[in-house]
Automatic annotation (TrEMBL):
It comes from Aureimonas flava. One of its GO terms (cellular component) is cytoplasm. SUPFAM superfamilies: NAD(P)-binding Rossmann-fold domains (SSF51735). This is Ornithine cyclodeaminase family protein. Belongs to the ornithine cyclodeaminase/mu-crystallin family.
Length: 334
């Protein structure tokens, strides 16, 4: 019997890799470019709800990235009350495979991967779609992905002002303290959505609402702003897309009609946002087949649901770096 060994990276190994901002952005950019060139397979995510969606659910993401010659499946739990038992709300496992034989090649604690690649997609979206002179960031939400949103956006824009808000005071204060330590700049903590978002150049909504609730007001969006809503339950007013010049998504297959959850779910299901009036998928813009921002006056919305291809690409980058540094374990599969 042929021996099969797989790479295993636990949370400590992933932390020890200490991926830099540009390493993360480069890996995710490569995955987006591959998607834009038609060199990926991205299956729409499926969900497992053990009891009720109020308690939480599992997302199962499946993808293949041809330039990397790797396929992968990630299972991530999303349980909003985990903070009550000292756990992150999102924990994940990524499995990588040889796409020609089906042989497993790696198992990775993908909790950090989920956070990093989400922040990277937000930041890469801003690189192509936000005004180059954006100086004020408003960010609602303090979950794991939020940290990487702010960190990677600030890496690209070096903001003059960063405002943050989340529902629980202790959460937003801890979030701001971590950002101040890591970014070396003052963070403005707000106790309401309006003070956080109104008039910001880049507006990020990563809330954890139990049901769709229009807390993000259309009137707060100034002309030329870049808006990124990606909460599981929509926080948008229905007329927000009326003032937007371009709507961009990460993958229409996951955003289109009949899929559950998401910031623009009602907009899609009621025909307000369609494949025909969609400006582009982000991969098309990164690959250069569709334009990004074309003028400072454009107000642009970017909705991303999360791409399996970016999980695969970032996981592959981690495995490669870990081998070079001698980190992780080799486990015998058979």
């Amino acid at each position: 019997m042929q021996e099969i060994w797989i790479d295993y990276l636990n949370a400590g190994d992933v932390a020890a890799l200490a991926l830099g901002n540009d390493e993360i952005l480069d890996a995710v950019s490569a995955a987006l470019r591959a998607q834009g060139l038609g060199e990926t397979v991205i299956e729409p995510r499926v969900h497992l709800v053990p009891e009720s969606s109020d308690k939480g659910h599992f997302n199962v993401l499946r993808g293949y990235v041809k330039p990397l010659d790797i396929a992968g499946v990630k299972v991530v739990g999303d349980f909003v009350d985990n903070y009550k038992v000292g756990l992150p709300s999102e924990m994940a496992v990524l499995n990588l495979f040889n796409p020609h034989t089906g042989m497993p090649t790696a198992i990775i604690d993908a909790t950090a991967i989920t956070d990093m690649r989400t922040g990277a997609v937000t930041a890469i979206g801003a690189r192509h779609l936000a005004r180059k002179d954006s100086k004020i960031l408003g960010h609602v939400g303090a979950r794991g992905t939020s940290y990487w949103n702010v960190r990677l956006l600030d890496h690209l824009f070096d903001f003059d002002e960063i405002r943050v808000h989340s529902r629980r005071p202790e959460s937003r204060e801890a979030f701001a303290a971590r950002l101040e330590q890591d970014l070396g700049k003052k963070i403005v903590v707000t106790d309401n959505w309006r003070d956080c978002l109104e008039g910001a150049d880049i507006m990020i909504e990563a809330s954890r609402l139990p049901e769709p609730t229009p807390l993000f007001r259309t009137e707060w969006v100034k002309k030329g702003a870049f808006v990124v809503p990606y909460g599981t339950m929509s926080a948008l007013e229905f007329d927000l897309t009326d003032i937007v010049d371009k709507v961009v998504v990460d993958d229409w297959g996951q955003c289109g009609p009949g899929r559950p959850y998401g910031a623009l779910r009602r907009h899609v299901d009621e025909g307000k946002v369609t494949r025909e009036n969609l400006h582009a998928e982000m991969g098309e813009i990164v690959a250069g087949s569709r334009p990004g921002r074309e003028s400072d006056g454009e107000t642009i919305l970017f909705w991303h649901r999360g791409l399996s291809s970016t999980d695969v690409a970032l996981g592959a980058a981690m495995v490669e770096k870990a081998r070079g540094l001698g980190l992780g374990q080799r486990l015998r599969f058979r």
